[in-house]
Structures are given as C-alpha cells and as structure tokens.
Amino acid sequence: MFDVEKIRADFPILARQVNGRPLVYLDNGASAQKPQAVIDAITHAYSQEYANVHRGLHYLSNLATEKYEAVRGTIARFLGVADEHQIVLNTGTTAGINMVAYGWAMPRMQAGDEIILSVMEHHANIVPWHFLRERQGVVLKWVDVDARGHLDPQKVIDAITPRTKLIAVTHLSNVLGTKVDVKAICDGAHEKGVPVLIDGSQAAVHMAVDLDEMGCDFYAITGHKLYGPSGSGAIFVRKDRMTEMRPFMGGGDMIREVSKDQVIYNDPPMKFEAGTPGIVQTIGLGVALDYMMGVGMDAIAAHEDDLRDYAQARLAGLNWISVQGTTPDKAAIFSFTMEGAAHAHDISTILDKKGVAVRAGHHCAGPLMDHLGLTATCRASFAMYNTRAEVDALVDALELAHELFA
C-alpha cells in the first residue's frame, strides 16, 4: 500500500522550514529531492569505498567498478531494456542528446535534411539540432499542439518527407504535463524508415517505461529528476544505432589501444563513455532507481494522478488563474498565469514567503511559450512525496497573491 507519510519520512529536507513555514516543495519538474538512502549511499561511497573505476586492480577500484557498472543493469531494468549494453552512462539528458547530435546525426545529415520536433520541446532537445541547422543547413520542422496541449502522433508522422532523418520529441512536457503517445510515433516513423529520439527527462519519474515495447531508437534520462544526484544520467541507444554512431568525446575508457598512428576504440557502450565518469553520482542514481522500483512505479503514478485530479479541482475554483495544458491524462504539472499585472516571478516570490517552492519563467521551452503567447508562467510540479494538504497550501498562497495584486 502506498504510504505517502512513510515516503516523506525518507526525504529529510521535507522536514525543514522556509521563511518560518513548513516547506512545500513543488519544483520537482526542475529537480527532485533525494531520499536518505541516496544521501547515505553517496556519503558511504566517498568515505569508505571511493576509487577510480575500470583501470585499477586493487580492492577499492574493483569494488567501485562493480558498484558503478551494476547501475547499468539497474537502469536497464528501470527502463524495460533487456540488454544493458544499450545503456550509455553520462551526466544527464543534455549530454545524451548532444552525443546523438554529434555522434550520430552530424555525420549523416546534409543541407536540406530534416529533423522533426514538437513545439513542446525543452531547449536540451532543441539547441543541439540548431547546431546542425547553423553548421550544416539541416531543416527543423515543427509540429504544434492543439488548444489542450495535446500532440497528435499522426501529425508528427504526416510531417515526414523523404528528407526526414530524425524525429526528436518529448515523452512528457515539462510545461504542460502532456503525455505523448511516443509508441505510436515510433511505430509510424519506423514504417517510413525514420529513427526516433525521445526525451524522457520528465516522463521516467512519473510512469513506468518499457523501451523494448516502445521501440524507440534513443531515450534519454537525467538522474536529478529521478530522486538521484545531479551530474548523473543515461541514454538508451538501440544496438544498430550504436554501430552507426561515432564517438562524441575522446579520452580514457573509450579506447582499447592508442598509438602514434591509430586508435582502436572500445566496444559500445564504453566506446561512448570517455574519461573518468561521475562514479559516485552514478552509484547514487542506481540507489534512487532501486528506491523508486521498491515503491512501485504504478503506485507512484496512481498517487500522482490523485494529486493531479485534486489540484485540478482546487485550481478550477480560482477563476483568476489560467492553467496551460488540459489534456485529461496529463501528469501532475501545472503551469499557470494570474489575471492582471502579476508577473510569474512576483507570484513565485509571494508563494515562497508562504514556504511554497514553485518555478517561474519560460521553463527552457521558448518555442512553446511563443506558441502559447506567453513570456513566463508559474509552474507547480508534483512528486511522489507531495500531498493533498500541500495542494491546499498552494491554493492558499495563490489566494494571498491574488489579494495583493487585486
């Protein structure tokens, strides 16, 4: 049974106060808090087990290597991937998408070739493709969402032309909370011979993911949104895509031999993991994923769906609040504006005085803000440790902000 109070007790920061009030942390879409198990694992790794991985023959190096490499299998299980050798460890989604842009897309795209994006994409899934636009003349094609924030998979598929070389879309919008039917996109794209990259940063923390069933070519995740350390993450790369991809970075670990005249690369995924990695961060990520799987992804999703429904009902009673993104099955992410002259930054500041932490700004989603006709919103994003009482605290703080700006 899902016991939110028991879960909250595992996250020490939730017991603190901010501005004299209990912390209500609703900025999980930016970065989630860490359970004690992750904090303890990081402390233990640094204080008792730290050494560099792969290259040493001594006890600590072997122990660190064993714990570090075990995380590859943990990530594979978490993402529903049978073969852990399709998991490339890195510092997060941004690193993963850039690796694909430089290592896979850049060598095979020419001027006039196309990449299809949705208007909901985070800048991490936009800027690397702009590099290709600027430097190689690649064309970026945009697919809009409807008034509810829904992305029609067929519209994405219909945008494919003979020049389309890649589709890169989010699995879940960090602004609207929209869940995208990425399997339908993958199925339709593959029928036309087009690979698909999925930005899973927001989705993987809110729902069970099965990549073997989904069938995408690339799927990127970031650890700090998954209750793990910053500087940790991974990208799934389908085996045949790995054979097509050249290394993005050069250095230690990604080579077998180096001489004055040649380099012999290591086998994938090591071929794409240059240099000393984030050893302790990655170990911490593995503990975070084990924690989530221990709670149960279906149980987490059900709890967050309840929070979503409750928050929708409470926010609907505030007729001076406009919520962006109204798809029925959206995640518990609410981006909103307040009528009148109240700026998102001012609203966020007032909420902070009540101990309520939300995000304010464009949320690294410039094209979506332009599409919505907005410059900024406030965003309350929920996690498994949030409660209905915290929804009430958010609404109370918003009512205070409205009174101040009325």
Molecular structure report:
This protein has 406 residues and is an alpha/beta fold. The protein folds into two domains: 4-30 and 296-405, Alpha-Beta Complex (Aspartate Aminotransferase, domain 1), CATH 3.90.1150.10; 40-294, Aspartate Aminotransferase, domain 2, CATH 3.40.640. 40% of the residues lie in helices and 17% in strands. It has 14 helices and 17 strands. Strand 13 and strand 14 form a beta hairpin. Helix 2 (36-48) runs antiparallel to helix 10, helix 4 packs parallel to helix 5 (127-136) and helix 11 packs parallel to helix 14 (388-405). The longest helix has 21 residues, at 59-79. It starts with a helix and ends with a helix. 47% of the residues are buried. The mean pLDDT is 97.
Gist?
By secondary structure, this protein is an alpha/beta fold. Helix content is 40%, strand content 17%.
Element layout with pairings:
Elements: H1 4-9, E1 17-18, E2 21-22, E3 24-25, H2 36-48, H3 59-79, E4 87-90, H4 93-108, E5 114-118, H5 127-136, E6 139-143, H6 153-158, E7 164-170, H7 182-191, E8 196-199, H8 211-214, E9 218-222, E10 233-237, H9 239-244, E11 255-258, E12 263-265, H10 279-295, H11 297-316, E13 321-324, E14 333-338, H12 344-353, E15 356-357, E16 359-361, H13 366-372, E17 377-381, H14 388-405
Parallel strand pairs: 3-15, 5-6, 5-7, 7-8, 8-9
Antiparallel strand pairs: 1-2, 4-10, 9-10, 11-12, 13-14, 14-17, 16-17
Helix pairs in contact: 2-10, 3-10, 4-5, 11-14
